[in-house]
Design brief:
Among the domains are: 117 residues, no CATH class; 176 residues, no CATH class. Helices cover 62% and strands 4% of the residues. It contains 15 helices and four strands. Strands 1-2 form a two-stranded antiparallel ribbon. A hairpin with a 2-residue loop joins strand 1 and strand 2. Helix 7 packs antiparallel against helix 10. 26% of the residues are buried.
Length: 461
């Protein structure tokens, strides 16, 4: 049995403390008897030598103002005496009483209850997450339409869908064709913008396959490619770096980042030479998803594909070539943005009304950088609800272009974090918190013992 030395040492100290308690009781009895006798003498008006009483009183006070070192026993000696005194193995039941176990269980229960109150979901949380997810799904059904093919749709042609039209008008107003052309000329990036590479890139797909054109990853791969005169692509499910002659762009890292930003802005809404919408930037991480080539996914059966199964990587490229670019991703993000805003508002109101939580603290719990795991679980449920409805939309219409990329990406991101919390981090956080509180209680006990030791050094001998 582990920790025998420590358990036996505690048992030895307990036995000695019990013996001291018995001696203290005996001393207390004698003091009580002495007090009674003194009171009897006082009632008989017996005169005491006042000078002797004053002298003795002063002597005791002087001893209390002078600290006398206490005699301490080394820990090694305690262990040795305990091993010699207790030859049989001891367990926790030998040093803890039934009441001790009950008190410990009660303390842990209080810690667990406080933890669950802070991180556990209540009925209102489920209602908020589910209703907001359904509301986002409804917005997706009513206000979002599949994109029109960019290579054949006029740049000024009105697209279908309330949110689609809003995004199209916003992009056309913020980044008109003239601004796109100007930004393109001023922010040439050389090798990363190679639009023709035998067997790898074409004029229509180079922005999808070249990772330097990813709205987020482009700031990493684009800078590296400009400095190294390379083009980083995804080919056959793997990242491939292709060297390009005379494609290096000079400048500091900050200059290259600025150039990359200008180039991405020039491509996001750039029309073709024929005046069509053009192949814009892909949605975030869309090019990287081509690494999952070979994974079968269901699709609508037709003459060319009678089995109804397709390759995931090919489906991603099919979506992009048929108009599913960053602009469509922005369209699908609007229902999710509304959903998250409503969730935060409802959650804050609920926490303040039901639990009296401060507004500032609750608001911080919903911030992306300080997200409370409780709210993360709610986000995962909301995105799961909207994605489930979106899956039904794609199945009924038989059109993968109706996919809500923002919803599925939100489900993947928040779902992974929620699973990590539920399976691993929650247990570590709970018992880590219990441990911290118990250690704090022990530190407080040690502090009180130090105070008692200080007082004991001043007791009269």
């Amino acid at each position: 049995m582990p920790y025998q030395r420590e358990i036996k040492g505690v048992r030895l100290i307990q036995d000695r403390a019990a013996a001291l308690d018995g001696a203290h009781i005996e001393i207390g009895t004698e003091l009580a008897d002495l007090k009674r006798r003194l009171l009897e003498l006082d009632e008989k008006n017996v005169n005491f030598d006042s000078d002797e009483v004053t002298r003795r009183t002063q002597e005791i006070l002087d001893q209390q103002n002078t600290a006398a070192p206490l005699v301490s026993t080394p820990l090694t000696q305690i262990y040795a005496e305990a091993d010699a005194h207790y030859t049989e193995p001891l367990g926790l039941a030998d040093i803890l009483s039934i009441q001790d176990f009950a008190d410990a269980e009660k303390r842990v229960g209080v810690h667990v209850q406080a933890f669950n109150q802070r991180y556990g979901l209540d009925g209102w949380d489920y209602a908020i997450a589910g209703s907001c997810g359904l509301f986002a799904a409804m917005l997706d059904l009513l206000c979002v339409r599949a994109p029109m093919k960019s290579s054949t749709t006029s740049w000024n042609q009105q697209v279908d869908g309330i949110f689609n039209k809003f995004v199209q008008d916003s992009f056309n107003k913020l980044i008109p064709a003239e601004l796109s052309a100007k930004l393109s000329k001023e922010n040439l990036i050389g090798a990363p913008d190679t639009s023709m590479l035998a067997g790898v890139l074409t004029a229509s797909n180079h922005r999808l396959r070249s990772l330097s054109h990813d709205p987020l990853l482009g700031f990493i791969f684009g800078v590296l490619d400009m400095k190294n005169s390379t083009c980083t692509t995804v080919v056959d499910g793997a990242i491939r770096i292709v060297s390009i002659e005379k494609g290096q762009v000079g400048g500091s890292v900050f200059q290259l980042l600025g150039r990359m930003l200008g180039h991405l802005l020039s491509d996001v809404n750039a029309p073709t030479a024929k005046g069509n919408r053009g192949m814009g930037l892909p949605a975030p991480f869309m090019g990287l998803l081509r690494m999952f080539e070979g994974i079968p996914v269901p699709s609508k059966p037709n003459k060319a594909n009678p089995t109804g199964w397709s390759d995931f990587g090919k489906q991603i490229e099919f979506m992009y070539l048929n108009g599913y670019d960053f602009r469509q991703f922005t369209v699908t993000s609007l229902p999710m943005l509304i959903m998250e805003t409503l969730m935060r508002a409802f959650y804050i109101v609920k926490q303040m009304k039901l639990y009296g939580a401060p507004f500032g603290e609750t608001l911080l719990d919903t911030m992306p950088t300080q997200l409370n795991p409780r709210f993360r679980l709610m986000l995962a449920m909301s995105y799961g609800t909207s994605s489930a409805v979106n899956a039904g939309k794609m199945y009924i219409t038989g059109n993968i272009l109706n996919a809500n990329y923002a919803s599925w990406m939100g489900l993947a991101w928040n779902g992974c974090h929620a699973l990590k919390w539920a399976l691993v981090e929650r247990h570590l956080a709970l018992w880590g918190e219990v441990e911290a509180k118990e250690i704090a209680a022990l530190e407080d006990l040690v502090s009180k013992m130090a105070e008692l030791e200080e007082r004991a050094t001043r007791l009269p001998i």
